[in-house]
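Cross-check.
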Amino acid sequence: MQIFKNYPNMTVVFACLFWGTYWIPLRYIDENNQSSVWPIFLSFAILSIILFKPLIISFKESFLKKNYFFLIGCFFAALAISLYSESLLRGEIAKVVVLFYLCPIWGTILAKIFLKQFFTIKRVISVILGILGLEIIVGIEKGIFLPSSLVEWIALFAGVSWAISMTYFNLAKSTSALQKTSLTTFMIPFIFLFLCFVPGGRSFTITPSLLNFDIIYVWIALFSVLWLLPSILLTYFSVETLDPGRINILLAFEVVVGITSSSLLTQENIGIRELLGAALVISACFVDVISLNKKKNRNYNN
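Predicted model, tokenized:
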């Protein structure tokens, strides 16, 4: 576990490999169970069972030690993951991941307001690039400046919620990645269940495969242990080492993984608009990371 703490930047990028292919088991489970909420609910709930011990510690941390910022951070992280999952089920993968990873904008602004961090020139450029990416994705050439569909708003709010969670984690008392993961995954299934009431959401149907212990349970277990757990846990290893803006910018690498995997495995039309919007969002990552590396190299040489 120490290696993840020693190399937080690479840990976040590695987590993107899981986040970027997250949609594959998610959509498979949904499509093969008549869009029933229960298989996905079980996938999230399994982690709470696996992480039962750190979950108890998390409850004590939240209420007995009054670490309320930690509790709020976990809630917004759970809300973000739930909204992101729902948007991946409703919309086009490429558009959803780009809209979600506008969170560097929100993370940078929140870090300025709550963490009193400076607006460096590279962060300002990152925000500008992110806004340009947003406008291209929503269709600025058609006179559209804001998201025009429900799925676009869901993906956008998912990114905002994620940025808020990262900010609260920085304000909270120190907790372990396992504690954050356990409490977040405890909240996700209930929030995801609530999203069924949003028009076009999952159904409450109990499918035959759930009653007959079909192969779907293998997919549920794989999704829970091989995708959800490393995605969330690896990201949380870096929360207390990196600031919200930096984490969100590094997570933009998922845009590359998400678009590449969707272009190879789906029939979705990934056009110039999606690619250009994605390029602008990804460039925000390079502006921040490359400039920081140059600064470190200069300090090292001196």
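The chain has one domain: 2-301. Residues 291-302 have pLDDT under 50 and may be disordered. Passed to J.P. for a second look.
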